[in-house]
Amino acid sequence: MNAPDQYSKPAVVVHWMIAILVLVALPLGYYMTDLSLSPRKLQLISWHKWIGFTVLLLFIPRLFLRLTKPVPAPVGTMPGWQRAVASITHAVLYALIIAVPLSGWLMSSAKGFPVVYLGLVPLPDLVGKDEALGNVLKSAHEVLTSGLLILVGLHIAAALKHHIIDRDETLARMVPLLKR
Amino acid sequence: MKCNRILATALVSLVLPLAGTGAYAAQPAGTFDQVLPAKNRIDFVFKQMNVPVKGYFKKANVDLAFDPAAPAKSTVRLDLDLGSIDAGSSDANSEVVGKPWFDVKAFPTATFVSSSVKPLGGDRYEMTGKLTIKGKTRDVTTPVTVTQNGNTAAFDGAFTLKRLEFAIGDGTWSDTSIVADEIKVSFHVEAERRAAK
Ligand code: HEM
Q1: Using CB atoms, which residue from B51, B89, B173 is nearest to A39?
Q2: By residue range, what is the domain housing residue B22?
Q3: Do residue B3 and residue B78 come from a single domain?
Q4: Distance between CA atoms of residues A34 and A27, nearest Å
Q5: How many domains are contained in chain B?
Q6: What crossing angle do the helices spanning A9-34 and A39-68 adopt, rounded to 10°?
Q7: pLDDT band (50, 70, 90) for residue A6
């Protein structure tokens, strides 16, 4: 298969849906955690869970597209070390995009709060109620989340660098509007 | 002929009470009133944002008297230590003892006092009584299933109460789209009867 010079349209759509949801879930998570218990907090936690679970759902078509559709090769002007860093970042991002919501769901189950997606669809409990395990999973969710935050930051910084400093096609391949 | 009748009547009147005794031997008489406190369970399920969350009370004192031969005379009294609540998480536990919820400082106990018990057939009964929480008293009715096992009987039942009728979670918490009004309460109590003389 020849590498195209564009991401496929579905891949672009799913990429940005996940990006937006992650960029909402992250600050929402930090914000709601610091609130003291209130109806508002419960509401925000529910929304946070629904957004996070949607990310998990979107990951299925995302992975399917990544594995079935060829992706464009890195732009030719990129040095080898940058290619290596990019492919490592992408792999870890994929891993965290699963691990972060999954750890949230696991935490919720362990803390004895079933997840009811959109308030309509009860999801299975992944583990039984176990307070100690719940606290471990909470830390896991926090640590993984910090990792995701750092990588998302790196990912965005690199994309902007390509576009603004290197002035190459990297970002435009994922944002067809930017094609020059 | 006449003699036969008299004899028959005499025999029957002798045997009848014996038949009665026979039945009692299989299911001895006596009132179940020795509650086994360690077996008491008061559980509840509430819904927040449609998510069912389970909780229970660690301390409940129950007094009851149940005579299977005269169930309508049964009496039940519950004193529930509201401070012993486990509402599913440590966050919730520190919240629900506070003023908007149970206001445990002012109202440490909830009580239930039965007013009537109606047999529904078989081992099922319907109990009505006065439930007092946070200074508010309401009639509640609950089915009760009694499972007798020798000299022990288990009493199980479940009913739904509306928390706002007792001002449980008022103020901002009265928004039932966050925490639903209906709370499902279930109970399990076991009692022994004093050995029949
Ligand atoms: C893209 C997905 C997700 C992201 C980016 C994300 C991010 C976050 C962040 C940043 C926090 C604050 C952590 C801290 O205290 O430092 C948080 C907390 C939390 N997350 Fe997520 N999360 C995601 C998915 C989920 C899912 C799917 C669930 C559950 C089904 C979930 C449940 C929770 C809960 C319950 C907390 C609060 C923990 C507590 O304070 O007890 N998260 N999340």
Answers
A1: B173
A2: 1-30
A3: no
A4: 11
A5: 2
A6: 150
A7: confident
Residues B26 and B73 in one domain: no
Round to whole Å and give the CA distance between B114 and B79.
Answer: 12
B156, B144 contact by CB (below 8 A): yes
Domain ranges of chain A: 9-178
Distance CA(A93)–CA(A151), nearest Å, equals: 7
pTM of the model: 0.85
B48 at interface of A, judged by CB pairs closer than 8 A = yes
For ligand 1, say whether the CB of A100 is within 6 Å of any of its atoms: yes
Ligand 1 close to Cβ of residue A26 (< 6 A) = yes
As given in the structure block, the two tokens for residue B142 are 């609950």
3-class DSSP state of B13 = helix
Question: B73 and B4 share a domain?
Answer: no
Whose C-alpha lies nearest to ligand 1, atom 17?
A29
DSSP structural state of residue B31? -
Interface predicted TM-score of the whole assembly (ipTM), two decimals: 0.82
Average pLDDT for runs of 10 along chain B of length 197: 58 49 55 94 96 96 94 95 95 94 97 96 96 96 95 96 96 96 97 75
Dihedral of alpha carbons B134, B137, B139, B145, sign: positive
B54 and B117 in a common domain:
yes
How far is Cα B128 from Cα A104, in angstroms, rounded to an integer? Answer: 43
